[in-house]
């Protein structure tokens, strides 16, 4: 049998999913990253990666044909000539790059995804000012480095991870300003996600792991794109709404759209574009007022076909970027009815309105017409909410086929997804 392994390095844990040629899931393995010490994080990731592989039964492991890995976007490492990290990795949400933002603005003409304190580019430029940088030979994303541990080749990444580094995903090259940096030799070579890099190293297929020497390792992707790949959306006009702590929209389109000020940008997905934006509204606001159990019980008492007259903009603090780009936008949670069912109805309905406005904005900017919305995240199981959202969106709203990033990455390994 032929099996394919996708590995997801998320924020709280690492998971591996093995699929068969027909995309069915054979097994899942996991490793918690929640209690890692901040010292030698890279070594902990290596331990997690090796543990995931070892948890796969030997007979299946031997028949793995390909492996792909996704990492958290903008989690990066600085390595020496042998791939050893020279410093602790800088995590996705680390904002130390704020000190080099002015430099980036000048370099890039101020209008790109990289003008952010947490972008991979900000982290690279921050590192370039540290003494350790003189020894640096490679700048890699988390997924690149983990894959290197398996295939042994340094300096290779994919254009999903490289977007926040400043890679031009339209022209498929680094822009001149990036190539002209004095340390551009550290930049990885960029390939399409799911491209075969090499087979596993002899070390990896030895008696410890017993992988086949023919098992291939592919370029990876980021965790959120991997989750999109898992959803089943594949045609222009199909979208995935993630109803987690925040509200994240992703719409597959034949046109690339960008509006940096609203946080809207496009990832390349084969011959299509994955357009999207994220609002600060979402499940975190619901959790502030209701327990998960209350959300289930009270939602069942809502008549989804009856519009709520309450017009909120549910936020926990001031400001949103998408679909309304206003750092001073005030949360609107008044008037507050004494009946909790009515209050929840107003919140769900208002978030559905914001979601619809978001898709409207993406379409106004040129994205394809919305035809179908798949839902992921904690709010996906709320069928009352799905019906309310369908009333606003006017297209079918269903749960995503699968929401696991590891599954989307296994599809990459199968080389069918992109
Ligand atoms: P994240 O990974 O972004 O933290 P999850 O995808 O785990 O979030 O989803 C958690 C969110 O889902 C919580 O904020 C919670 O309020 C919301 N949630 C949980 N159950 C329901 C429900 N039945 N209806 C609506 N929202 C829910």
Automatic annotation (TrEMBL):
GO terms for biological process: xylulose metabolic process. The keyword Transferase applies. Its cofactor is a divalent metal cation. It is an enzyme of class 2 (transferase). GO terms for cellular component: cytosol. It comes from the Bacteria. Keywords: ATP-binding, Kinase, Nucleotide-binding, Transferase. One of its GO terms (molecular function) is D-xylulokinase activity. Residues 3-229 form the Carbohydrate kinase FGGY N-terminal domain. Pfam families: FGGY_C, FGGY_N. Belongs to the FGGY kinase family. Residues 240-414 form the Carbohydrate kinase FGGY C-terminal domain. It catalyses: D-ribulose + ATP = D-ribulose 5-phosphate + ADP + H(+). Its EC number is 2.7.1.47. This is D-ribulose kinase. The keyword Membrane does not apply.
